[in-house]
């Protein structure tokens, strides 16, 4: 016969809870007696509740305008130049939405009246912050005949910087002052047959015409792909100028140069004058391209 195992009765759920409560009470009493043994200071410490956690200060970024003021200024100016105080078309409605308080132009009437200036395209030239939520955007407007005019468009945002609008009529202004031409920054002429000029010629032939790979002409750690597909068949370097004098034929290792190359690129469609700004570094007596300012810049990394 199989022996029956004695199964001890499990305590009821309520008794388990009660036992746990009794253990907690015992621990609390022990803590109090320890505080008594420690003297008055221990009682004070036991009686003082734990301090509440200090409030955490969360820094929030300053609000920013949800809409780009440059883009709004471009669209507004295009509509404003097409609008007329006597009209009620799409241009007038667009001005009303983007600048409710802005007055509209009034075109001259009559058979001999000249056509008003209408922008075929507009482009923001620069944006100046006047105050928080207020900008002055200079916009260039070009007509279909090629005439270019410049306007300053005032743009402001609401108190929450969530919406922007044109606050007043644009102001026609003079063209922005031009900076020095790029060629003036390159004061030293590099000899046409120098090692530096040859490196520039070989690199551009690979870069623009697909003559070999560009990799052999790049400095270590420089990554730059050619123009693909190759748009030209030949490229001729007309002139190379540097920002200062240097040893262009026998450079010391680690020497650097920043140059401007003016070239003529030839394809089946004709010839095109192009200008490139290049950074070169010397290694083992030869110049290697380490940067290209025109178009997509060279990246530093594995070649």
CATH topology of the largest domain: Nuclear Transport Factor 2, Chain: A
Radius of gyration based on Cα positions:
38 Å
How many angstroms does the end-to-end distance come to? 85 Å
* Rounded mean pLDDT score: 78
From the helix content, strand content and strand pairing, which structural class follows?
A: alpha+beta
What's the count of strands? 12
Order of helices and strands: HHHHEEEEEEHEEEEEE
The tally of domains stands at 2
Which architecture name of the largest domain does CATH use?
A: Roll
Helical fraction equals 10-25%
For the report, how would you describe the main beta sheet?
5 strands, antiparallel
- Which ranges are low-confidence, i.e. pLDDT below 50, for 5 or more consecutive residues? 11-22, 24-66, 295-303
Number of helices: 5
β-sheet strand percentage = 25-35%
Net shape:
elongated
CATH class of the largest domain: Alpha Beta
Protein name: Conjugal transfer protein
Search tags:
Nuclear Transport Factor 2, Chain: A; 5-stranded antiparallel beta sheet; 303 residues; 2 domains; alpha+beta
Question: Could you describe the 3D structure shown?
Answer:
With 303 residues, the protein is α+β, with helices and mostly antiparallel strands. The chain folds into two domains: 69-105 and 116-173, Nuclear Transport Factor 2, Chain: A, CATH 3.10.450; 183-300, Roll (Nuclear Transport Factor 2, Chain: A), CATH 3.10.450. The chain is built from five helices and twelve strands. It has helices spanning 13-37, 40-47, 69-82, 90-98, 195-209; strands at 121-131, 134-142, 148-157, 164-166, 171-173, 188-190, 222-223, 234-242, 256-267, 270-283, 286-292, 299-300. The strands form three sheets. Strands 1, 2, 3, 4 and 5 form a five-stranded antiparallel β-sheet that branches. A hairpin with a 5-residue loop joins strand 2 (134-142) and strand 3 (148-157). Helix 1 (13-37) crosses helix 2 and helix 3 (69-82) packs antiparallel against helix 4. The model is unreliable at 11-22, 24-66 and 295-303 (pLDDT under 50).
């Amino acid at each position: 016969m199989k022996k029956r195992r004695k199964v001890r009765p499990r305590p009821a759920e309520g008794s388990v809870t009660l036992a746990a409560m009794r253990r907690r009470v015992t621990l609390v009493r022990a803590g109090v007696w320890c505080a008594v043994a420690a003297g008055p200071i221990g009682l004070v410490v036991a009686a003082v509740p734990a301090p509440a956690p200090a409030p955490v200060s969360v820094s929030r970024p300053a609000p920013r305008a949800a809409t780009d003021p440059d883009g709004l200024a471009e669209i507004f100016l295009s509509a404003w130049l097409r609008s007329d105080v006597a009209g009620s078309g799409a241009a007038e409605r667009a001005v009303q939405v983007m600048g409710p308080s802005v007055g509209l132009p009034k075109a001259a009437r009559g058979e001999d009246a000249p056509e008003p200036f209408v922008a075929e395209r507009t482009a923001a030239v620069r944006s100046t912050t006047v105050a928080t939520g207020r900008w002055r955007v200079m916009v260039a407007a070009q007509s279909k005949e090629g005439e270019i005019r410049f306007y300053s468009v005032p743009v402001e945002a609401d108190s929450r910087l969530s919406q922007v609008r044109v606050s007043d009529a644009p102001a026609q202004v003079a063209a922005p002052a031009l900076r020095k031409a790029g060629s003036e920054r390159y004061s030293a002429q590099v000899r046409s047959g120098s090692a530096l000029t040859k490196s520039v010629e070989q690199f551009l032939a690979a870069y623009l015409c697909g003559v070999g790979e560009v990799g052999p002409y790049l400095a270590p750690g420089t990554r730059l792909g050619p123009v693909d597909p190759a748009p030209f068949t030949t490229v001729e370097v007309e002139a190379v100028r540097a920002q200062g004098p240097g040893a262009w034929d026998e450079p010391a290792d680690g020497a650097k140069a920043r140059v401007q190359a003016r070239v003529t690129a030839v394809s089946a469609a004709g010839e095109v004058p192009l200008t490139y700004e290049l950074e070169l570094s010397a290694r083992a007596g030869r110049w290697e391209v380490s940067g290209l300012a025109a178009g997509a810049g060279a990246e530093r990394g594995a070649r």
